[in-house]
Amino acid sequence: MNDEQPTGIGATVLGYPRIGPHRELKRAVEDYWAGRIDEPALRDVAAGLRRATCTALADSGLDSVPGNTFSYYDQMLDTAVLVDAVPARFRDEGSSELDTYFAMARGRDAVAPLELTKWFDTNYHYLVPELGTDTAFRLAGDKPLAEFREARDAGVPTRPVLVGPVTFLRLAKPAADAPEGFRTLELLDPLVDVYAELLGVLADAGVAWVQLDEPAFVADSTEEELAALHRAYERLSALPARPLILVAGYFGDFADALPVLGGSSVDGIALDLVTAPAQLDAVRGLRGIRDKTIVAGVVDGRNVWRTDLADALSRCTPLLDHAGEVAVSSSCSLLHVPYDLDAEPSLDESLRGRLAFARQKVAEVARLGRALRDGEGAAAVDPPAAPRRDDGVRDRLTALGPEHRRRAPYAERAAAQRERLPLPPLTTTTIGSFPQTDAVRRARADLRAGRLDEAGYAERMRAEVERIVRLQEDIGLDVLVHGEPERNDMVQYFAELLDGFATTANGWVQSYGTRCVRPPILHGDVSRPAPMTVPWIRYAQSLTDRPVKGMLTGPVTILAWSFVRDDQPAAETADQVALALRDEIAELEAAGVAIVQVDEPALRELLPPRAADRAAYLEWAVGAFRLATGAAAAATQVHTHLCYSEFGDVIDAIDGLDADVTTIEAARSRMEVLADLAAVGFARGVGPGVYDIHSPRVPDETEIGGLLDAALRAVPADRLWVNPDCGLKTRGYAEVEPALRAMVGAARLPRPAR
Has residue 262 been placed in a domain? Predict the structure, then answer.
């Protein structure tokens, strides 16, 4: 390890996973919330993880190590707290700084948390800052400085990473009490003042480079936004004492932002050359490039496939004749991939040869850095094995026609469904999953360890299904679910039952806060060898006279929440998954199931950042959903569910899915989505969530009733469903049961708007 702070960047990554190789941070934070450990104990765990990360990255051969990439919950929340953008409702004098921080993420008593939404087109969620004319930015914390000093004391000089000021403002939202017409960019100058102060503090501490992430500019940008970028970096670059500034863009093409940054006095620009390799041509002609470091992001930070090192090096070397320095990096933070492939000894060897997780990607970057520095070619590696091929699946896709993606007209379907399902106005239901108890998790662990056989496991899960059905009947829900106790995850469960997928034992990736997922690896042609859900739904329906929904995860979400093969178009892969789901729906119908829910919470997630690229994506995404559901009979009610996204951009696509009922996240955003649905003339069933399940708060009938009244102003009662925002898997029964009783009670109260 080098005790001297480097003047160049060389080989680096833009960020690294922070939950711990064994989810140590998740467990420690949840123990803190539960009162099992105190704040010093939590901070000790965090400090240990930070030390282990920075020393491992330094020892791996990187020339520059990113710092300040740790977070207890989310980097946007960290930034809001750092600049004191803390809404008044969270300023409780009796709370510690850490408890105020967690209250912003999770809510507290009657105080609602910040809104949660997707980080660009990834499955990571960030907390949306709330800003208004009364927001008074100030440098309220020292996290970047403290973590720099901590790493330096461990012998590792780091490059602090911060959310850039313009991206912070673009991703924030006006507070509820902000004047009409207020735009968050109006706060640019006072926010840049705080960043200027912070850069001065970091410079005084000996920081050589600071990384400011501006990924908002890989999306379409207005002239005002580009002018804000110019003004911010002219100001920061002109500071008399500051670190060198690296501005990073990822998940797409910097496009119009590139000449703005090229003409500024920033010292480096990091580009995603995996997602947007065409930027190479633009950057070679960039004004001012000879005075700058160009960080070439050529190792994929979002997917798990091994890098073609020779190809990656060929994308870096043309820049050597143009830029002042060329460095090599991951395309984005490695937050989006698992820690270490070596933790997966059970993966098939032919598949392992195609993979690289975070630790392996760091090694690839270091190897490319040496090759670029020494002028040597990247050593050749053996080509990986070819993906699994299924000619039967490919023949079915070739035979598809437009009729396979169409159902009967909605009016005809609605009439048939009313006859089959005499449901009341304001029909109550849940989204699908119920809390997974310790007993359920123990049974799953016992099955994996061989202490319980398949028959014994199925018996325990059937007992849990019956308990959940009886609870729903007692609460008074109209449409029931089986609760999904047998499912470990809404995507992994299906991946384990479909050919063409592999799953990991320890491939955890942070989704939000302490919520971690293990994305499956979709590595070959997909097919369904046997029914996946039918026996469970048939059993649940046998226990009750009320309708029980069949529960499936949609093709787009299965792709979005998996690591997907990159050797064929995503549209073709999505259709393969859709065919498997189509067959499952047919068997659910044959078993007498009247309602089938095909969840697509990730529909908005995969939306390309730039408007010009969106139509093609939405065409295949909607087409895959309609292929999966297109054979359902008119009397079968098809539901879908979407959550935690900005829905305005995909509102036409939501309509185009042609589901009979669409349930959608709306509690945190106070029913904002209903205006978008009304604007496109949405005339089918809709269930805007009235209970925010991502917070431990338990809403009462009055709170839920207020949301219902708002919904009834936009949707008539005979088309309005009443449901939580999302599945209940991550909550406990002590929260879920009273919240659902309040939800049913609110739905049954007389309402003037009915």
Answer: yes
Tracing tokens 């708007």 back to the chain, one arrives at 753
Residue 45's closest CA among 18, 78, 79, 82? 18
Q: pLDDT tens-digit profile of 401-416?
A: 999 999 999 999 999 9
582 and 692, same domain (yes or no): yes
Q: Do 136 and 225 belong together in one domain?
A: yes
> Under DSSP, is residue 533 helix (H, G, I), strand (E, B) or coil?
coil
Q: What are phi and psi of 303, to 5 degrees?
A: -130, 170
Domain of 71: which CATH number?
3.20.20.210
Q: How confident is the model over 596-652, as pLDDT tens digits?
A: 999 999 998 898 999 999 999 999 999 999 999 999 999 999 999 987 556 777 888
Q: Does residue 572 surpass a pLDDT of 50?
A: yes
C-beta separation of 667 from 705 below 8 A:
no
SS (H, E, C) 573-619: HHHHHHHHHHHHHHHHHHCCCCEEEEECCCCCCCCCCCHHHHHHHHH
Average pLDDT, the chain: 93
Query: Is the Cβ–Cβ distance between 504 and 493 less than 8 Å?
Result: no
Which residues span the domain enclosing 171?
Answer: 24-374
The catalytic residues are 694
* 56, pLDDT greater than 90: yes
pLDDT of 669 over the 80 cut: no
In-domain check, residue 481: yes
